[in-house]
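Dear colleagues,

For the upcoming journal club I promised to circulate an example of a predicted protein-ligand complex. I picked one with zinc ion because it came up in last month's discussion. The inputs are reproduced below in full, followed by the predicted structure.
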Amino acid sequence: MSRHFCTREDELLDALERGYVAPELNAHIETCTPCGELYRVAGALLNDRAHAMAEVVLPSAGTMWWRMQLRRHREAQAAARRSLLIGQAATLLVAIILITSFFGTRITAGVRELAGSVPTDTLMLPALALLAMAIFVAPIAGYVVTRQK
Ligand SMILES: [Zn+2]
């Protein structure tokens, strides 16, 4: 299917957007098939847009101001939370580095001694694995719960 073009289609679109089609252009629409189709399709779409714009109910200025204040307040809260999270992460990192540098060898020796003293019978292994998982998961769960507020 081939489509024929007319050089006056842009002019017709401009006229339809303005809402006024000059009589001379109107006469051209009657004789030109592409412009006639464009007039029907674009005219219907533009009419639909005009009706939709007319039916929009804008909220009052006070309501819009209140919504903007609320949005600005929420954005400020989110920015503060991000900054706080970065500060907490940096503090935690520094604390881990300091603890590791000061007590690293003692902690390692203590963990080895503790691990050596644990009875390794098959009944205790699942309980130890569960305890280790709880120790690992508890801080993450706490973080997730406090972050959702
Ligand atoms: Zn035409």
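Two points we might discuss: Residues 61-117 form the longest helix (57 residues). The mean pLDDT is 88.

See you all on Thursday,
B. R.
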